[in-house]
Amino acid sequence: MSSPTHFTTNPVCWLFCTVIDNFGDIGVSWRLAQELHTRLGWEIYLFVDDVTALQTILPDAPTQLPNKYRHIHLRDWREREYADFQAASMPNIIIEMFACDLPEDILHLIRSLKPIWLNWEYLSAEDWAIRTHAMPSLQADGSQKYFWQMGFVQQSGGLLREQNYVNQYADWIKRQPEKPVSGSPISIFAFGYSSEIWAKWCEIFSAQSHPIILRTAGTQIISSLKNAALLPENALIQDTEYTLGSLKIIRQDFVPQEQFDELLWASDINIIRGEDSFIRAQYAAVPFLWHIYPQAEMAHLDKLDAFWQTFWQHVPNNSFQAALTALSNELNGASVLSTAQRAEYWAILLADLSEWQRITQIWQQYLWAQSDAVTRLAAWLCDGLVNP
Ligand code: TRH
């Protein structure tokens, strides 16, 4: 793995984020900005094209740019068009989040200043992503851009994890009262994309002999249930709860990003989406299913497969594998189960939540045994200094 050869102390980093939709782009960018500042002491300029997305996950974020918020300089920009870098300190490092396209004056600046230039890529466990991690790519103008590939293995760019995450998690666990051995409802947190699957799965949940609480964040699951006529149009607008047989659906309002982990820690099952929520759910060591961001021509299915293959390489082969695979495939549009199969697979998982939890704990420990993405980035930059 080659790495760039020039770096200074107290670096200035410009980070560019395009909000394509939803909150994952800004969610990951904000976490990265915070980590680079608090851990490495870098001065960070976060260029963001949709400050309202930032406000959804951080309600006290400023509405007017430019601004400085929690030690991060926030600046306006538009992909390929312009970036407000007036009076900004010049960058030693430029990070494009998720292959966004920089405006010409920033490219001009890269040619003249020659900062370290990274493309911080979408999360993938696929082989090609691991192979291309930290590889340089020569641009037409002679500049060098490096790929940073987040991932689940030591050879990848790693995952974002705050230094105090493990302690915060342990403190929270300690503060929780003992759970009653039986009788309490199974609590599912679901934050997913629009899909017909939600109505089908809610029908299964509503027919269980055991009570289930489904907390759902965002608008897409509730809209999907209304489209399928499982919920009336006026449900979960004024009221926050709706009951269907054994299932109580609760509308979960958005919480600030720093409180998001607690939602995941407090559940018995998390069905999450995107990539930031997905990583946080894995750290929570609570049984999870991943509603992956759907891509054209079902390209997301390769990514999904690659993740589960990596997971099962590190978690002992388990009687849950078939049920989890079948339900994960159905959730993500790779297959359609019959009602009987769907009910049977859910019955397997719900019957032994402690076993499902045990395997997610093994996976959590596997991830925690590895260094996080910011530690890897710092080491990579340092290595460039020592071994030019
Ligand atoms: O919201 P997402 O599904 O969005 C993204 C984008 O669509 C993007 O274009 C796509 O490429 C990417 O997914 C894969 O992604 P995710 O990971 O679920 O991000 C949600 C963020 O919102 C995450 O940082 C957690 C945060 N959040 C809160 O802060 N509070 C909340 O209550 C909830 C539910 C989420």
Question: How does the SSE layout of this entry go?
Answer:
Elements: E1 12-17, H1 24-40, E2 43-48, H2 51-57, E3 67-69, E4 72-78, E5 82-83, E6 93-97, H3 104-113, E7 116-120, H4 127-132, E8 136-138, E9 144-148, H5 165-175, E10 186-190, H6 197-206, E11 212-217, H7 220-227, E12 241-244, E13 247-252, H8 257-265, E14 269-273, H9 276-284, E15 288-291, H10 300-314, H11 321-331, H12 339-351, H13 353-368, H14 373-386
Parallel strand pairs: 1-2, 1-6, 2-4, 6-7, 7-9, 10-11, 10-14, 11-13, 14-15
Antiparallel strand pairs: 3-4, 4-5, 8-9, 12-13
Helix content: 40-55%
| Heteromolecules bound | 2'-deoxy-thymidine-beta-L-rhamnose
Low-confidence stretches: none
Level-1 CATH class name of the largest domain = Alpha Beta
Query: What pattern of helices and strands is seen along the backbone?
Result: EHEHEEEEHEHEEHEHEHEEHEHEHHHHH
The termini sit apart by: 12 Å
User: What's the alpha carbon Rg, rounded to whole Å?
Assistant: 22 Å
> Major beta sheet, specifics?
9 strands, mixed
General shape: globular
How many distinct folded domains? 2
Strand content: 15-25%
**CATH superfamily heading of the largest domain:** Glycogen Phosphorylase B
Total beta strand runs:
15
Mean pLDDT level? 94
CATH architecture heading of the largest domain:
3-Layer(aba) Sandwich
CATH-defined topology of the largest domain = Rossmann fold
Structural class: alpha/beta
Short description:
With 388 residues, the protein is of the alpha/beta class. It is built from 14 helices and 15 strands. Strands 1, 2, 3, 4, 5, 6, 7, 8 and 9 form a 9-stranded mixed β-sheet that branches. A 6-stranded mixed β-sheet has the order 12-13-11-10-14-15, sandwiched between helices.
